[in-house]
Amino acid sequence: RRPNIEREYDAGFERLYRDYFSDSPTFGHKASHRNLCMTRRIFLKITDALAAHNKPWTSFWPVGRNELDATVKLGIHPILKVTAATR
């Protein structure tokens, strides 16, 4: 059996949050609209709607992933999931 590859999803979430969703984001509204393929407000509305329909996502914002993956680590943050799905 091959060993699991560390993907560093936590670091990816921290960068994404800092760049687009923090109080003082690195990139402005135009860049977030271009890179997220929609406005930040709509992106968060979609993420909140998905959180309402999926029990493991119910208390995720700004942190709080409470699901475990197959390697018994915390799962990928919902914002990363929605970002990947929209691309």
TrEMBL record:
- The highest taxon in the source lineage is Eukaryota
Q: What is this protein called?
A: Uncharacterized protein
Organism, as annotated: Piedraia hortae CBS 480.64
What lineage is this protein's organism placed in?
A: Eukaryota, Fungi, Dikarya, Ascomycota, Pezizomycotina
